[in-house]
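A quick aside before the break. I want you to see a complete sequence-to-structure record at least once, exactly as it would be stored in a machine-readable document. Don't worry about memorizing anything.
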Amino acid sequence: MLRTSGIHHITAIVNNPQVNYDFYSNVLGLRLVKKTINFDRPEVYHLYFGNESGDPGTIITFFPWPKLAKGRIGSGQVGTTSYVIPKNSSGFWKNRLENYEIAYIETTRFNEEYIQFQDPDGLQIEMVERDADTGNSWSTEEIKPEQAISGFGGATLFSAQPNQTADVLENIFGMDFVNQEGDYLRFRAQELLGNMIDIKLSPSVRGLAGAGTVHHIAWRAKDEDELQKWHKLLETNKLQPTEIKERNYFKALYFHEMGGILFEIATDPPGFSVDEAPNELGAELMLPSWFESKREEFEAALPPIEVKRVKE
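That is the input. The structure line, written in tokens, reads:
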């Protein structure tokens, strides 16, 4: 049986690219590992943030559309993105959020304590202490490795048909059912990061795409050969995957599961160093070869982003 090892990346829609960069890089301390364009809508940036090397399981990506209307978080979407922080770092993060005047609440789920808050566009984020044992060597003047976000803890899915979404996680993706607690089902994948997926059972309003909502969640495939096997499995189960697409940093396919959430399966390789040196990730606007001839056009149309080199 094929088994995904967890989340590859999560992609969301926001408005202002500078506000987006300032929050995820300067407030949360993630590294901008790639500044490129949306390959399907090249007039829009595609920004990738993660750990120092941009490993699968750490990457959150954004399509910034400055004039796009606000969306509504609800069914058919990822409702909350979870981050793992090191043990004994919750106090640091609560103080940091307070210093930036970011409201947060504390809650408990499956015997874990979460710090929940929103980013500037209204995306729902939470932090949880776990022994992920991976660490993050990316540090800033204010955030040291012993406090730095390790990567994803998981996500909470708001499904229009939660039991059918659960069936996909368990019987297509090969995740293990952990438990049910109140309104939530929990499933676990194999990796230490991006491995805990909760499905909310109680009804929510229908989600509307727009700024401040998650566009899709991507699951890991170890290589292109495995991705081909995923494609065949999805077709066999009548889940209607797209063709495999070239995304430069990975290859990917897409499908909507029965609860309305857009799922992607993406390969771990080749990664973000295919067109930039590891110590220069995120420094320049990178374009795939088929768009390079239009570089001047894109650079003139895209809004500037002031990228601060926050590495010590």
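Two observations worth writing down. The helical segments are 17-27, 90-99, 162-172, 224-236, 295-301. The chain has five helices and 16 strands. We'll return to this after the break.
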